[in-house]
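User: My instructor asked us to take a sequence, write out its structure as tokens, and then describe one feature of it. I'm not sure where to start. Here is the sequence I was given:
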Amino acid sequence: MRKPRNPFPGVSRLVDRHGKVRWRFRRKGRADVYLPGPYGSAEFRTAYEAAVAGVAEPVTRTNSSYGTIAWLIENYLRSPKHMNLSDIRRKTIRRELDWLRGEMGQYQAGRFETRHVEAIMARKTGPTAANTVKKNLSMLFNFAIKYSLADLKHNPAKYADRRRENQDGYHTWTEAEIARFLTFHKPGSKPRLAALLMMNTGAARQDVIRLGWQNIEGDRIRYRRHKTEIGGDYPILPELADELRHVPADRMLFLTHGEGRPYKPETFGNWFKDQCKAAGLPHCSAHGLRKGQATRIAEEGGTELEVMSFLAHATPKEGATYTKKAGRAKLADRGLSRVSGAKPEQKLSNLGGGLDNAIMQPHQKKG
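Assistant: Let's start with the prediction itself. The structure tokens for your sequence are:
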């Protein structure tokens, strides 16, 4: 009787020292990887195709014990879920998971409880950092449950209490702050060019540092956002057009430092922060400028889809954040106008320099 053909050439079955069945892909010229999920499942096939195509990450030789957080992290980092993220997101996640591995990598994931998650969160000082720990642990536990790893039956991070954060995050630039920055940094300066590029395109720092003449077509500027892979297509506004006239036609990138070297995202962010401080705006940042421009669009009646297109987001969810805030302000104005309109004889005082004169006058007469 003929032996059935292996539908997945290069894959072999092995049982580890814990009795766990695992599937390993080996082929000359390709990375040596373990394949997640049950044999033949969709997850298994996706990982197999990635391994055959040569885009899978190789098996890392490790002493991590089966079922530990460190072991779980290593499995996640080799998974299609992680590989499908953008380059910059993968780097961020890996850095955050490296911290988790150092703090708790030796502990068994299956023995974790919610109180343990909250104890690890408490090792971070800020609320955002603590909530990131909860988010990453929840991601790891859900990954383990989906692929039947680490003998985990439920997600203990799900019920951990989040720390209260500043909902607005980075400071959103106001109209006055934008005007102040552009007044301080004169036409022809690099800080002014950087600000107008971000205001015209909604580009994040990792995107604005890659913009150059190759992104200009006629009177439009186009690029693909690195994080979302969504394309942005914008008319070049007059202020930006004026600044681009100062950029040499043979320069590859609009924004460089040193002797024409390209910026790294972190280096550019630090440099732009210094330009904000120089303009008397130490609380402002590159990310907040994007938010400021998105807010201006929403306040001028822009829709969620318009804000989404400006920021090159994949969904209108983030755009809704800006339009809701703008809508609440307009509703508040309308609500107060109804109250003041119902009592025309009641006049609101204009307070200035302390107490209103209209309020002080009766008391002064008594004296």
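For the description part of your assignment, you could build on this observation: The chain has two domains: 11-146, 175-326. Try explaining in your own words what that tells you about the chain.
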